[in-house]
Structures are given as structure tokens and as C-alpha cells.
Amino acid sequence: MRILITNDDGINAPGLQVLEEIAAELAGPGGEVWTVAPAFEQSGVAHCISYSHPTMVARLAERRFAAEGSPADCVLAAISDIMVDARPDLVLSGVNRGNNAGENVMYSGTVGGAMEAALQGLPAIALSQYLGPRTADLQDPFETARQHGAGVVRRLLDYGDWESDADFRLFYNVNFPPVPASGVQGIRVTPQGRRRETSFGVVPYTAPNGRRFMWVSGGSQQTPAAEGSDVSANLAGFVSVTPMRADLTCHNSLDGLAKALNGDMLACSQPTNSDAG
């Protein structure tokens, strides 16, 4: 198997080393693992691409490259240039330091990398390690992802829906729970949740020169979400697996809104009595 890995924490991040181990186990002795990752941390960039400026790509070693761009840039660089002669069979993004469950999905560069791969027609999985009080004192905070990662990916490869003919191909978002590897309760297939009592915010800061800056701050990641969601499963000790698409349409609202609005522009364009001369 020929596997491409990327992340949003940067080429030197410990989670990428964990993903290299997972990918090497999956690829096997006759396989290949290619790394194309951001030269610097790109957390929070979501599905951003460097559309308006060039991105420098540096070869660090055989099958190992760093790009001065986002995870989505890295995927594009890999399939359009670095691996153009033979596209990867699988793209893995992560292992992120911290969860990409709940509302974090919308900000995640880790998820953005997997999403870009899916948009390019490739099987893709994002992997993240939830952190919390039970992982704080671990010698290896990634031990749960390290020990369970390859097994979870294998299960997805065997049983996941890998349809390739849809307009927006499925990809998968995997979050390992904030517990030691021995404390994992199993796997749960879950929808994306929402921590309603926490959100991102801004901490203002005035520099010594009088200029105004801000730091973006996040809320508690131990805040629960709806029962059955990815967040809920993770906090209960389960690995969450969420099938996703790069389609933000709210399909449940289409029919009702169409009945209410279809034809309104024509109706509004008809002159009324008050419009007549």
C-alpha cells in the first residue's frame, strides 16, 4: 500500500511520528509511506489553501517533504507534484494533539487535509488524540492513538463506505479518547456533536508600542455534548468514528424552503398598484 500522511501540527510534531508508525504498519514491508506536512504549525486553518501566494516545498529526506502551507496545500503538493507519477492509495492526516470532535471539526486543519484528499477522489482519514486529566500524567500522551490507531484504520478500510462516484466522497474523522490505551472501551460510530456551553473567544492584548493584538482562546474540552455524539463517546472512553463529506448543505431544509421561496422573485417583480404610474 502507498500511503500519504500529513498533519496540521507541523513536520516536527510528535503526533506525526505516531502517524508514521501507524502508516508503516499498515503499508507493510512492500509498501511506501510518503510524508508531506506543513513546515510550521497550521492548527486552526481548516480547509484553507494558499490560493493567492506561492508555497515553498522542501525535500527533507527520501519520501519526506515540508511545505510552507496548510494541510490541504500539502495534499495538493503531494498528488499534483511530489507523487504525481503514482497517487497514494490512502491519505492519513494527524495524529493531532488534541481532539477534533464537536465544533472543533470546523476549525481543524487535520480534518481539512483529509477533506482535500477526499475532494481529490482519494480515501482519507483524519486522526486526533483527545487530551484530558487522564492523559496529563502519561509518559506518552499519544499512547492510545499509537496502540489502537492501526487497528481502527484497518477496520475502516475493511468495513467503511468508500464510495467514489458521489459528488462529495466520504472521508472519516477518528478521535481517540482522553484515556490510557488500556482504558479504551471500544469503537462508536457517531455524528458530530456540539459543546453548547463552550466556544472560542478572544483575549485582547496591548503591546508595549501601543498596538492592539488579540489571542484566540478555546473553552474547556471536557464540556459534554449530546448523548451519542463524538464528544460524548470520547469522554466515555470510546474511539469515535464519524463519516463526513465536504457538503455543507442542510438537506433536511431544502424541500420546506423551496416550497416557501421558489417563484418568489417572479412574484416580487410584478408591479403593484402603488408602482403603477
Please describe the structure with a list of short key phrases separated by commas or semicolons.
5'-nucleotidase activity, alpha/beta, two-stranded antiparallel ribbon, metal ion binding, 277 residues, nucleotide-binding, single chain, SurE
Can you walk through the features of this model?
- Helix 1 packs across helix 4 (143-159) and helix 2 (71-82) runs parallel beside helix 3 (109-119).
- The chain is 28% helix and 23% strand.
- The chain starts with a strand and ends in an 8-residue tail after the last helix.
- The longest helix has 17 residues, at 143-159.
- It has one domain (2-195, 225-251): 3-Layer(aba) Sandwich (Stationary-phase Survival Protein Sure Homolog, Chain: A), CATH 3.40.1210.10.
- The protein is an alpha/beta fold.
In sequence order, what are the helices and strands, one letter per element? EHEEEHEHEHEEEEHEHH
- The average pLDDT is 94
* Strands, total number: 11
Strand content: 15-25%
- Integer count of domains: 1
- Rounded to the nearest angstrom, the distance between the terminal CA atoms is 74 Å
Radius of gyration from CA coordinates:
22 Å
| CATH first level | Alpha Beta
Main pleated-sheet profile: 9 strands, mixed
| Uncertain residue ranges | none
* Helical residue percent band: 25-40%
Based on Cα principal axes, name the global outline: globular
Order of neighbouring strands in the sheet with most strands: 3-4-2-1-5-6-7-11-8
CATH superfamily grouping: Survival protein SurE-like phosphatase/nucleotidase
Look up the CATH topology.
Stationary-phase Survival Protein Sure Homolog, Chain: A
What is the CATH-assigned architecture? Answer: 3-Layer(aba) Sandwich
Q: What's the quaternary structure here?
A: single chain
Tally of helical segments: 7
What would you call the structural class?
alpha/beta
